[in-house]
Amino acid sequence: MKEIKTTTEYTDDKIKKFLKIYYFDKIKNKRIVLNILILVIIFNFFTKYDNERSTIDIIAFVFALIGLLELNTSILPRFNYNKLKRKKDNIIGTKVFYTLKKNNFKLTTEKDEYIDYDKLKKVIETDTDYYLYINSSRSLILGKDNLSEEDIDILTNIFKEKVSTYIRKKNV
Asked: What is the pTM of this model?
């Protein structure tokens, strides 16, 4: 395999998309259970007569509605993006240089770092990017905008073959 060199700039749009996918991927199993519990609380609220509802029922109902909104919309990813934007040393505008080889890739920001593909925890591919999860607290965005179709096919096959968890998300 030939070496593939590319650069990814962490733009506002790329970071927003990543945070949304990261959030919904992280809570996907918990979200189902929490949505069921919230629906039970809401159902319970509406099946009681007005004179049977207590203050606790009303408070639980309000929290259930807030939970329903937060779990199923991108409020939390947007909040995290705004929090990230306010940081002094945020990553917005950062350029990351990648040199992708057969068994590993070199990541260059302020220093060089080599990461083997089989050490990646997970890769999520979208129409525009690859999200490389190194561990539970660190991930990278590898943009497809500077890659040819041939390079994208090569990288997709490498990730499918060498990374334990590969996920393809369409229309994100």
From this structure: 0.77
Tokens of 59: 């408070």
C-alpha span between 70 and 124 (Å, rounded): 23
- Residue 133 Ramachandran class (φ > 0 left, ψ -120 to 50 alpha, else beta): beta
Question: Could you give the CA distance from residue 159 to residue 163 in angstroms, rounded to a whole number?
Answer: 5
pLDDT tens-digit readout, 61-109: 999 988 888 777 767 777 777 777 777 777 788 899 999 998 899 988 8
Q: What are phi and psi of 80, to 5 degrees?
A: -65, -35
Handedness of CA 107, 108, 109, 113 (dihedral sign): positive
pLDDT over 90 percentage in the chain: 40
